[in-house]
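Entry:
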Amino acid sequence: MNSEGRLGWADTAHGRVFSQTVLTESPSRTSQRSTFIETGTASPPSVVGSASLRIAGSDTLRFEGQTYGSGISFFLVTNNPGEGPDLHRHPYSETWTVLEGTVRFTLDDTDCTAGSGGTIVVAPGIWHRFENGGASKLVLMCMHASPHIIQEWKYPPGADRPSANGQTTN
């Protein structure tokens, strides 16, 4: 018999979190693991308004977790048909969930399509891009496993890039 119970509390006034896991391996044998994390002075939860996250000239929101004490960052993308970023990569994994519409992904040399409710994960360092592959609006949550968004563009703006016929274009 293996069972596990968890106990935890948070002292937000002093920035402390305590968790305890009790593992019962058999009726006569129980082990216990405890964790105490000093997190510094905790601040009360806050709501971040979409207006402060909106990218200028766009419907897309950009949230960098470090600013708000979070270990993740995200884009909440809203794209019209055919819109999407060029090839880029990150030094951490990225996870997307399609909230509305259809998205077409390129992950290295592999293309795939996902519809509403679909989730795609890319490992760190993989070149990728996506675009709205449908006829209506795309809403896509792009979660970055980092408190900062770090992007390296394969073809920086204005750089030559290969075309389908092997010629370079700008």
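The chain is about 0% helix and 50% strand.
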